[in-house]
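Q: I have two molecules that I believe assemble together. Could you output C-alpha cells for the complex as a whole instead of separate predictions?
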Amino acid sequence: MNAHPLAPPAALLQLDGVRKRYNIGLPNEAEVLHGVSLSIGRGEFVALIGPSGSGKSTLLNILGLLEHMTAGSYRIDGEEVSGLDDAALTLRRRSTLGFIFQFHHLLPAFSALENVTLPALMREGRITPAQRERARAVLAAVGLGDAMNKRPGELSGGMQQRVAIARALVLEPPLVLADEPTGNLDTVSADEVFALMRTMHAELKTSFLVVTHDPRLAARCDRVIELVDGRLVRDGAAVGVREGT
Amino acid sequence: MMLGFESRVATRFLREGRMQTVLIIIGVAAGVAVVAYISALITGLQQNTIEKTLGAQAHLTLSPLDDVVLSARAPASADTAALVQTQPRAQRPRSISNWQLLVPLLEAMPEVLAVSPMVSAAGLATRGEASKAIALMGVDLDRYDRIVSLRAKVVDGTARLEPGEGIIGRELANDLGVRVGDRIGIVTGGVTDSLRVTALVDLGVRDLNRRTVIVPLRTAQSLANLPGGATSLDLTLLDIWSAQTLADDLGVRWPYKAESWQQANAQLVSALNAQSVSTAVIRGVVMVVVVLGIASVLVVSVVQKRREIGILRAMGATQGQVLRIFLLQGAIVGALGSVLGVLLAVLLIGVFTHFVRGADGLPLFNITLEPALALRIAAIATVCGVLAAVAPARSAAKLDPAEAIRL
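A: Yes, here they are, computed for all two components at once.
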C-alpha cells in the first residue's frame, strides 16, 4: 500500500514497503509485516488498531527504532534511518521519540519527578534548574502536582500512566509512540488518560501514534490505521470505527 | 565525561537492591581486610627478620680472594698422560691489599652508606680456669657502629674501645663470669693479650653473643699477626636489596671476594621468597573471590533490571551509558568495600599488636599498614570491582530493548 494520499507533504515519518521477518533461515521463519507503507505528519493524532498478532507491536518497535526492518525504507524528517547503527539510532530515538507503554514502565527506584527528569539527565548528564521546573510544570499539567516526590509504587495505575505521559512529553519530542497506554486501566482512568493525551497534543502539537484495542478511543483519534495479518487494511479518518472493529 | 546520569542510576540500582549491595560490600571489605592484614603482617615479619639478621652483619663484605692451588702444567706432548691430584689450600688470615685506599673509593659510591675495616680471627677468651672459643673482631668503633648499630645493642656498660679495652657478648660474659670493668685474657695462635670489658652487647642471636669479642682494630691486627691489615671491609648500603647487584659488580671490577648478605643468608632469602610467593598467591586467590562475588551480584542485578535497562534504552540511553552504569556499580562496590576493608585491617592490626606479645610483654614485631600500601590495595580492589563488572555490563549494554521491555 502506498503512503496515505492525504498525508502532509513534509511527513514526519515515512515508511515504504516495510517487511519484517523473524528467524530468517530457520524452519520457523515467518514474515509478520508484508510491505507496510504509511506516513505520519506533524501534529497528527493517529490510532493503530488491529487484532492480536497482526504485527502492531512489531510495527511500533520499528517506528520506535527499537527493531530493524528486514526490507523497506524508513525516513524520519526525510532522513533514511534503516541503515543507521545502534548508536545513531539511539540518538535519533532520543531526539525524536517519546514512549508511553501499556504498563507505564517507570523506574521504580526513582520518584515521579526523577522519572520525568531522567530524559534530560540522560541527554546532558545533569539537570538544570530550568529543566527541573519544566518537569514540575508538566507533572502539574498532568494533574500530579502533589505527587511529584512519590515513587511509582505509591501511585495508582492511572497516576503512573500520567507520569509516563509527562516523561514522554517533557522534552517535547516531535512524536510520541503509545503502546496501549490505557490497556491496563479501568474505563474511567482510561478515559482520563486518553483525554490528557489529547490535551497535551493540542497544547504541544506533538504527533501521537496510539496503539489501542479500544474502538471507543480509536474513534476519538484524527486518523485510524488498521493492521491485519501484517498488512495495512485501512488508513483514514476515524469516522466509522465501531466497537468490535 | 559527565557521568551524572550513569552515577545517579548506578547508585539507585545499588540502593534498590539494598541487602544484596550490603552483603557484597561486606564481602569485598572482608577480602580487602584479609589482603591488607596479611600484607602488613608479612611485611612486618620480613622487615623484622631482616633487621634482626642484618643487625649483626654487614650488607656486603669485601675480603681477599681465597688461596687456590693452580693445576699442574699440561704435558708437552699429547701422548703423555699427567696424573694430577690437588687438594684445596688451607685459608690463612690475609689482609686486603691497599684497603686504606679502597675505603674512600667505596665511600664515594652513591649506594654505599658506610664502610668499616675489620680484622677477624679465631681465638680463646680466658678467665681463671675458664676458656671459651671466640670470634675476635677488631674494628674502628665509630665506623663499625654505622654497620651494626653496636652502641644501640649495649645492655651493660658503655661502648668504648681504647687500647686494652673490649666489648663482649652477653652470653660470653655469663659463661666466663665477667662483668663490666673485669679483665679477660685473649689467646690467638701464639699471641696472648688481656683486655678490660667496657660493655656487654646483645647482638640478637644467642650464638653470636656467646662468642663475640670486639677489640680495637690495632689490637686485633697485633693478635692476628696482621700489622696494618684488615681481613675484610664491611659495607652498609642505602638499599639492602641492591647488595647482590653491587657484589657482582665489585667482584668483576676488583680482585676481591664480594659477598652480599643474601649470599651469606641464602636459606633465609629462600624462605622470605617462599613466604612472599605464598602471600601473593593468597592475595591473588582472595582478589579472585572478590571479583567473582561482585560479578555474581551484578549478573543477578542485570537479570533483575532487564526491564529497566530496556526502558532506559528505549528512552535513548546509549549502550555506552548502560555499560557505564554497571561499571560504576562495580567501582562503587569495590571502593566502599575497600574503605571498610582497610579500616577493618587497621582494627585487626590493632588487635594483633595489643594481644599478641612476647615473653617480655612487648609486641612481637612492629606491624603497621602503610598508607601507600593501603591505598594500593584499595585501588586494586576498586579496579577489580570495575573488572568484575565488565562482563555483566557488556551483557546489559547488549540487551535488545524491545525484548527487554516485553519481558
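A: One point stands out. The interface with chain A takes residues 2-5, 8-9, 12-13, 15-16, 307-308, 310-321, 400-402, 405-406 of chain B (CB under 8 Å).
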